[in-house]
Amino acid sequence: MSRTLIKNAAVVTMDGPDYTGDILVEDGRISELGPDLAAEGAEVIDATGMIAMPGFVNAHIHTWQAGLRGLAADWTLFDYFKGMHAGLATCFRPEDMEIANQVGMLHQLSSGATTIADWCHANHTPDHTDAAIEGLRKAGGRAKFLHGSPKPDPKPGEPHFSEVPMPRGEIERLRTGPLASDDALITMGMAILGPQMSVENVVRTDFALAQEMDLVTSMHVSGNMLWGDAWAELEKEGLLGRHINIVHGNGLPDDEVKRVLDNGATVNVTAEIELQMGFGEPLTRIVSHHADDQLSIGSDVESGVAGDMFGVTRITLQSARHHHTRIVRAETGGPPEVIGFSTRQALNWATMGGARMLRMEDRIGSLTVGKEADIVLLETRSMNMRPVHDPVATIVFHARPENVDTVMVGGRLVKQGGKMLNVDLEALTDRLEASGRRVVEEFRGKQAAH
User: Which of 109, 138, 209, 436 pairs as cysteine with 67 (C-beta 3.0–4.6 A)?
Assistant: First the structure.
């Protein structure tokens, strides 16, 4: 039996009282919580002066874009569709997918996110898909691999991507092969086009497949629908449910948001990208007020913004507070007398919210006896962290990725003493840089040819 005892941390549990004390990990799971635990023969990690928290869950990230950082920083949504989906994505080879997913996942781990929802929609062939999964596997983090649909401009004689359903054969291949287990670190889900980006028969086909396969199924919804009556029809046919996840949703009327929530679906907010690309007010406020436990948050595209969950949590919280303030000012002419959202609420979106969205809340998202030991230790000796009066406020508003001292995934240490373990980061990031530059050069060559 492997045993690790984390001693003397300020423990933020997320589903019980916080305390200062110990965490005992046995065979990859949290077996005991409390002060002054005894564990003879256990490996001891002295966490005196540190904050212990559950690993972040980045519930929406396009990890394949890790080698394209900064390219979309000034892009609108229209620029993104043209430049990314119809452009750069078409230049990806399987090896580009693998190195981007490996380094992208390692970056998440190093920054305190132990689980991601990897929204993979540059997988033009099964080889691209397999390479993306292999990159995640090599990195050693926990991920829900959401098999998506590329969105290139159609060639003559080809259908538009909006007319192409999720390939059943490929989903079945993955589900009976590399992603057969729901207990592994890398598990299966789908990233479908949804009612905004596909026609009615494709929406029905994809939702039916999602229900049949019982897979977490996510879709972007950020503007006008190709099928306008979708949500009422899907509800009538019993195709909505807890396995359905809507990303963004900014353009949905309040009654439609409440409809999908009442049917058990979850909503993911990626506030920074939504603010940049003009999606409208993030749905944080309405979702939180109607069904707070159905809200998760994520970073979205690293081609546009930083991927660390400290920044994601801060921006999401402050944008929600700002929205609340605007409403109060419109009604009263003055600022709110009560804060609209708390730091603990925001940290819940970034941990348990993501765990629920991925249907993993029985495994991750909180420091709870019996759950898998996905644990992050933050050092608090740096100038940006001292003094710590409130550990939750420190996590949300003061901590940065460089404060992540130790990361454990399923009881296995992947970072300790501020250093990633058993990985040559310089060599891998050199490969990522070479991949990203090749993709960009090929894309620019295609532009010049036209």
Answer: 436
Residue 268 · residue 29 · CB < 8 Å: no
Any residues with CB less than 8 A from the CB of 19 and at least 6 apart, and which? Answer: 11, 13, 33, 34, 35
Cβ-contact 135, 98 below 8 angstroms: yes
What per-residue confidence (pLDDT) applies to 365?
98
Give the chain's domain count: 2
Are residues 306 and 224 both part of a single domain? yes
Q: 427-440: per-residue pLDDT in tens?
A: 999 999 999 999 99
Among the listed residues 353, 350, 324, 347, the one whose alpha carbon sits nearest the alpha carbon of residue 337: 324
pLDDT tens, position by position, 229-276: 899 999 999 999 999 999 999 989 999 999 999 999 999 999 999 999
435 within a domain of the structure (yes/no) = no
Question: What residues make up the domain containing 166?
Answer: 56-357
Domain end residue (candidates: 325, 341, 357): 357
Question: What is the phi/psi pair of residue 144, to 5°?
Answer: -100, 110
The structure tokens listed for 334 are 């003055």
Task: Give the CATH number for residue 214.
Answer: 3.20.20.140
Q: Assess if residue 447 is contained within a domain.
A: no
CA 321-325-330 angle, 5° bins: 155
Residues 6 or more apart in contact with residue 54 via CB below 8 angstroms: 12, 13, 14, 114, 351, 352, 364, 365, 366, 367, 374, 375, 376
- pLDDT value at residue 1: 72
374-416 pLDDT per residue, tens: 999 999 999 999 999 999 999 999 999 999 999 999 999 999 9
Asked whether residue 70 falls in the same domain as residue 46, the answer is no
In a domain, 289, yes or no: yes
User: CA angle 132-278-276, nearest 5°?
Assistant: 60
Contacts of 176 (CB under 8 A, 6+ apart): none
Identify whether 439 is part of a domain. no
Compute the distance between CA of residue 48 and CA of residue 54 in angstroms, rounded to an integer: 17
120 lies in the same domain as 197: yes
